[in-house]
Amino acid sequence: MPSLTPPVPKLPIYGQPSSDGRRHWQSLDALAAEPATAPSPEFPEGADSPPDGLARRTFLQILGASTALASLDACRPPRQKIIPYVRPPEKPLLPNTAVHYASALTLNGYATGVLVTSYDGRPTKVEGNPDHPSSLGGVGMHELATLLDLYDPRRAKGFRRGQSTLAYRSLLRELSALAATHQADGGARLRFLLGANASPLLAELKKRIQQRFPRARFHAYEAAGHDAEREGARLAFGRALDVRHRLDEARVLLSLDADFLCHGPDGLRLAREFSAHRESGPEMSRLYVAEAHLSVTGAAADHRFRLKPSEVLGFGRAVAARLASTHGLGALAPLVGPTRLAREANAVADDLFRSRGRSLVLAGSRQPAAVHALAHALNAALGNAGRTVEYAPAVYDEATGPGELAALAADAAAGKIDTLVITAANPVYTAPGDVDLAAALAKVPNTIYLALREDETSPRCTWNLAAAHPFETWGDARGHDGTVSIVQPLIQPLFESLSEVEVLASFVDAADAGAWTILRESWQRRRGGGNFAGDWDRWLARGVVPDTATVAEPAAPRFDAVAAAVRAAPASAAGLEASFVPDTKLLDGRFAENAWLQELPDPITKITWDNAAYLAPATAKKLGVENGSKVELRLGGNKIEAAVWTVPGHAEDVVTLPLGYGRRRAGPVGTGVGFDVAPLRTAATPWFAPGLAVAPLGRAKHAFAPTQEHFSMEGRDIALLFDAKAFGPEKIEHLRGPVPTIQKPVDYSKEPYKWGMGIDLTKCTGCSSCAVACQAENNIPVVGKEQVLRSREMNWLRIDRYFTGSPEDPQLVAQPMMCQHCETAPCEYVCPVNATVHSDEGLNEMVYNRCVGTRYCSNNCPYKVRRFNFLDYRGDMSPTEKMVMNPDVTVRTRGVMEKCSYCVQRIERARIGSRVEGRKIKDGEFTTACAQACPANAIVFGNLADPESAVSKLHQSERRYDVLHELGTRPRTAYLVRLRNPNPELT
Amino acid sequence: MATYVLAEFKDEAALCAAARRMRELGQKQLDAYSPVPVHGIDEALGLPKSKVPLIALIGGLSGAVGGYVMQWWMNGVDYPLNVANRGAHAPPANIPITFESAILLASIAIVLAVILLSGLPRLHHPVFDVEGFRTASLDGLWLSAEVPAAEGEGVVRELQKLGATQVERVAEEQR
Amino acid sequence: MSATRTNTALDRKGLDELEGAPVLVGRPSDKELTHELFQPVWGEMRRGWLALFGICVGVSGLLFAAIGYTFAKGIGAWGNNIPVAWGFGIINFVWWIGIGHAGTLISAILLLFQQKWRTSINRFAEAMTLFAVMQALLFPLIHLGRPQFFWWLFPYPSTLGVWPNFKSPLLWDVFAVSTYFTVSLLFWYVGLLPDLAALRDSSKKRGARIAYGIFALGWKGSAKAWRHYRIAYLLLAGLATPLVLSVHTIVSFDFAVSQLPGWHTTIFPPYFVAGAIFSGFAMVLTLIIPARKVFHFEHVITQRHLDNMAKVLLATGLMVSYGYMCEHFIAWYSGNKYESFVFFQTRQRGPFAPVYWLMMFCNVIVPQIFWSKRLRENLMVVWVASILVNVGMWTERFNIIVTSLHRDFLPSSWAMYRPTWVDWSIFVGTLGFFGALFLLFLRFVPSVSASEVKELRRELDHEAHAIAHPPAHGVGRGG
Fold first, then answer.
1. CB contact under 8 A, C175 and B31
2. Banded model confidence at residue A49, pLDDT cuts 50, 70, 90
3. Chains with 3 or more CB pairs closer than 8 angstroms to A?
4. What is the pLDDT, as a whole number, of residue C177?
5. Which chain C positions have a beta carbon within 8 Å of A718's beta carbon?
6. What is the model's pLDDT at position B163?
7. Residue B149, pLDDT above cutoff 80
């Protein structure tokens, strides 16, 4: 294996000394802590340096798949760069030791910093990077699930031109040859269609290509892009600015159709800042949301105004009107307009004004530029600018909307293009109904498509190149605030593939150097000065390049321009309105082949393996349809078929259609799942349009597979919701404290550790990151729709969603529910073979190899959190699929029970670490996968024996209660009641 | 070498009478055969009380004690576990199995006792050579005396005198 | 003996009240009885028997095919899920065990109470018990997620070092059911010994003689053996009586000891036992009515027997109804919101409500018809009713297990339960397997105990002679 031989500078590891000896810190505590002594005492001398040890063997396994495909000339530098094992390893590199590497994942143009856990050279888990401004340590479901894509054996492999396959080198030769043919006319007939990406390296490459081909053109396309924000800023401020919200300053928030807690480049950050101020008291923030479909943010709102997407602008104008008329903000006078929710609008306006300077108006990326401009005007008038909202030069400013795609398609159809390089995500599928990209591509002699998987676009292209996974390539990216991260690979490409950087580089004959060299040189140039290597290692190790965030600048909106735009915006029309949303899980469909996300219940509707035409119960009644009814949807000239699902709290006369489903070429996982709604979209009205016609199609029902079928609490004290003002500890006295029992409680006071968990329902938004994190951490299988229909899903951690109040305007509570680790666990005494017993530290332990599968424990579990392997859900996994497994967690066989273990493997790792250093485990030294992932810090895990620990504090909180307390199970997981902060004027 | 003398009688009274008479004459090795228990035959043959109840009692007690001790030792002593906060040794939970094992061992003891005490299983017995003796399990009533070959004649005559409907002699096969 | 005296007196009183319906018609001689009761064994093989047997074997084939499929694919082949982790498997287990109770009850308890009318039906009932319990024993094994490790339920020194958990009702079950099967088998076999000997001695063919001879262990009906035998049989009856009560009590603990609303209730032990006897007698009637007709046993298994069993159905049916009443009353009276929800919402109005109301009809309404003598005497009516009761008892177990589980504490985990074709095949298959075993029993063993009927005849003679001074003999087996 040539790739293994020559020793080379190893890749700096997050939180470990870099080759230049300086230490990189993982977090502030880590910085304070002493460096670990290596080699570790718990291993005998020499055990840590096996020339043919576990490390290399695993690595060979890893390479197995790719070497089969890769011909020798496909070996390319700098393979060795990412192999830490070729040198006698330090402590963290011992076999089967977790190593964390910092990297970044780019979605929709902007990056989120992540830490990737790697065992013996294979990434097994993604965490948030606490040092990255877009993450702050939290991580979203998409970053987590990307890991599964990496090991998907159905990924595209190798390179094809027509029918002939190409090796890496020959591909590069062919590409530069092709590029040369465009030299003559300055690339007039050369086009690029890229996805949105703020990567400095890509920007530089684009510039170099433009220099060589002055007349070549770059297009960008995102099915769910952020154009409207930039346009809105341009409207209001006359230049492209990024809007940066500072929720830690905001007390009253008005969201104009903005799902900011879940979507958007800074969703994780905003969720954390928002939840930080959901504490009872005068400082508790208040959130108003005006939206049609019930979004995660809407579910967290104190007041929701159910409006058609087209009515949102009107609502904003009414707020402006009130501010102008009653509160004398004259600047807003030209913006005013009517709304049908006048009373609410006035109350919101008064509230915003009361806390002006500490209030905030946010506009959703689906809303047109006018709404964003209006939001800027309102914030300016309310004196929020510079305090709760900042403006900075746009990190990325290119049109990525369907308009661009339409223009490109037109040119292609007109035969103006000879070579088209596509790296955008599956444009043929995501293209709006009125853009026939497929036909247009047929007119282009050379269409070069770089994609992770074979999809709808592949067969339309003459060149199909397998894209390398972000964990396999070098590159860079920028976060929502411009902070640069170096994207470093965690593993050799499992399959013959290359990166976007290499493709573009080959058009300036630079590809041969390889992505690593191109990237390094570009940054060396950019930085200048000496000791680049040191900085470079530091950047990699920490995951961010310091001082690269764009600087906020003062910006004043031009009210007249805003007013013009607002007035020009079309008024809301009567009748049914179609509203398109990027699906919470699959976004624009790029995750359709990700089984984790497909099986993840939708945060609101709990539906798995499907999207649906969502509508309000009243609207459904009016249309004579019910859950599962198949309908035909007609909009403009186009029509699609879909099945409906009613959502309490959904706005009436609106049908919400999530993108990303109904894929036609998405492998065994994604093909034919759900309904493709893209054909109804048009380039002009990509997000919502009036005049939707819904026609029921017969009696046949579509079988939806929700994991929760009953959304009422039946008047039981399960997930408690109180108005902050009305709440007092006496309200939950009966749900806490000791219960009478004939069994003398076991005394845990002697134990140094007493593990427990606290979950703050006020902070929890139900975003479901924890569920995916749990799945990744604990090797939880995916069972498929048919098994979910039989209610055999395996998620150890489920998020229960309860609705209270009227179905028109319900209150929502999300309740993460997993094993409560009851001290008197009902599951234990019924097991005939002692397969589930209690540990000294109070864990309810499931002994897989002792379980015979009577399932009695599940029957006797009042929380029904136990999961059973009814079938062999592992089947025969390919070698690559096996690599995603966490080596610390047993893979369960058919016929055994399983459940949340409080991440016992993490407890034990921490215990080993602490024993090696002869100390106790410190609070916050480790936590469970769900708690670590949670962007809102709603889940806290730790040692109840330590009264100072964060979890002990939660358990002592006056909001603490136990679910099903009266049963006397004495759960170790405590819940904190959900508080909302409604506006008295609206209740 | 012994001989069995078999005599069939027409009713129970005759059978009992004959049995009593033979005993007076000093015959020890007497037995009676009938499809159903013949009332009064025990007294007539002077059979002692059965030991089966005692054996049953022993079996039952050992079952109960064994059952409880097993549970106490296995869960309480050898491998104690914290199961749902209940004590490792939980007497109330051990009652059912104690009871069941008592019944089980008692029953097994009884059945073994009745079989072994009755000299079973013995699939072949000299008396089966008498074709007529087949009726013993259907509708006949038989009396048998095991005597030395020499005394055979006398016993036969005696039994005929006592009103046996038929008398047979069968020699025990060589051992 | 004095005991006998009073008892026989009692019987006579009982007899009079029964308007003289005899337990044995006529006074057939031992010869006649032997010939007649062994007729099914020595007689020609009937075409009807063969046909029925063929069908039952076929259906048993379905059973074992379905079990094989389950083992191959995993327990997921059944409809079970979370929250309904127990489905048909445990329903059938409890149902069959219940049916298995009548046999021992008839032969043991009725023996202790010296009920003459038991004599000609007890073997029949005991056989039914054995075969029913065999069906029941299948389920705890095949419903496991990992049946290959079923033996971990037994307390043996394993390499894991760990022992079974004696706090688990499921383990009590293992001991109770296996004990019950063993004891029933012994009891049945001991009772069979004299007849096996009789078969040996009445056999015309050498093969049969050897076969029965082996099973007869060389029984000669010697006085020495009889004296052990009689007391042993009585003792076994004495032990079987508390056993039969304990078994279904322990089965009910599987539910009563849990904390699931609808399971967690103290009425279960008595109410399960009553239900067991209820369904057991129903099954005896379902089987004995046609058998009696086919083998012309009308004057051995007389109207009196059927009449008594119908009355037992009525009595136990009333007990079961009382059990239902208590459950609902306590659910309301305790004010426990979860329990009242199960009994007044889930069961009566939930998706499985039809099953609930079917149960109420079959177990509460149907038995009431037995108040009427005319209906008790109409065999067709009794037979149909007995079948309805069996259906009712099955639905009762469905209600207890599935309906309670599918909607428990947290509404978020509620879900529906849908049995698969495998569930149904296994259920129907056990019926076929049971039938096959029973037909074999009818063919190769006298289904009415010849020796006991002979004894019964003698006693009736004695009574006829000596009403004033009853015979001075021991209790005997039939009393």
1. no
2. very low
3. B, C
4. 92
5. 410-412
6. 76
7. no
Quick check: A752 and A910 in contact, CB under 8 A?
Answer: no
Question: Per-residue DSSP letters for A690-750?
Answer: E--EEEEEEEEE---EES------TT-SSS-EEETTT--GGGGGGGSS----SSPPP--TT
Question: What residues of A are in contact with residue B85 (Cβ under 8 Å)?
Answer: 743, 745-746, 823-825, 838, 970
- Decide if pLDDT at C316 tops 60: yes
The two counts, helices (H) then strands (E), for chain C are 20, 0
Nearest to A107 by CA among A270, A310, A266: A266
Q: Tokens 């590159």 sit at which residue?
A: A475
Q: Identify all chain C residues contacting B143, using CB atoms and an 8 Å cutoff.
A: none
C-contacting residues in B 28-47 (Cβ below 8 Å) = 31-42, 45, 47
Nearest CA among C64, C401, C221 for reference residue A855: C401
Q: Which of B74, B75, B79, B85 to mutate to test the interface with A (most CBs of A within 10 A)?
A: B85
Handedness of CA C363, C365, C371, C377 (dihedral sign): negative
Tell me the DSSP string of B123-139.
S--GGGG-GGGGGGGTT
Q: Are strands A252-256 and A241-245 parallel, antiparallel or unpaired?
A: unpaired
Q: Which of C194, C219, C227 sits opposite B120 (nearest CB)?
A: C219
**In 10 A of CB A217, how many CB atoms?**
18
Q: Which chain C residue has the Cα nearest residue B100? A: C176
Instruction: With CB atoms and an 8 Å threshold, state whether A863 touches C163.
Output: no
Out of A230-234, A331-335, A792-796, pick the least confident.
A331-335
Establish if C72 touches chain A: CB-CB under 8 angstroms. no
Residues in contact with C93: Cβ distance below 8 Å, sequence separation at least 6, in sequence order = C136, C139, C140, C143
Is C214 at the interface with chain B, CB within 8 A?
yes
What's the pLDDT band for A57 if we cut at 50, 70, 90? very low
d(CA A599, CA A607): 9
Q: Does the pLDDT value for residue A955 go beyond 80?
A: yes
Q: Are B108 and C179 in contact (CB under 8 A)?
A: no
Within an 8 Å CB–CB cutoff, is residue C150 touching chain A?
Answer: yes
- Locate the chain C residue with the closest alpha carbon to A790: C81
What's the pTM? 0.88
Query: Each residue of A619-657: pLDDT tens digit?
Result: 999 999 999 999 999 998 899 999 999 999 999 999 999
Chain C residue nearest residue B40, CA to CA: C473
CA distance B162 to A635: 116
Question: What pLDDT score was predicted for residue A743?
Answer: 81
- Let me know: does A361 contact A352? Beta carbons within 8 Å: yes
Cis amide linkage into residue B121, ω under 30° from 0: yes
Average per-residue pLDDT for chain C: 85
Give the H or E element holding residue A304: strand A303-306
Picking from A454, A883, C163, A579, the residue whose alpha carbon sits closest to that of residue B76 is: C163
Using the Cβ of C83 and the Cβ atoms of chain A, whether some distance falls under 8 Å is answered with yes
Of C172, C198, C218, Cβ closest to residue B97: C172
CA A820, CA A836: separation in Å to the nearest integer?
14
Of the two residues C7 and A807, the one the predictor is more confident about is: A807
Radius of gyration of chain A (CA): 28
- Please tell me what DSSP assigns to residue C400: I
pLDDT at B99: 94
Does residue C168 sit at the A interface (CB-CB below 8 Å)? yes
Of all residues in chain C, the one with the smallest CA distance to A965 is C409
Q: Give the type of residue at C176.
A: A
The complex's ipTM? 0.88
Asked if the model's pLDDT at residue A914 lies above 60, the reply is yes
Span of A7-16, A456-465, A919-928 with lowest mean pLDDT? A7-16
- Distance CA(C179)–CA(C137), nearest Å, equals 11
Q: Does B25 touch chain C (CB under 8 A)?
A: no
Nearest beta carbon to residue C168 from set A802, A832, A849: A832
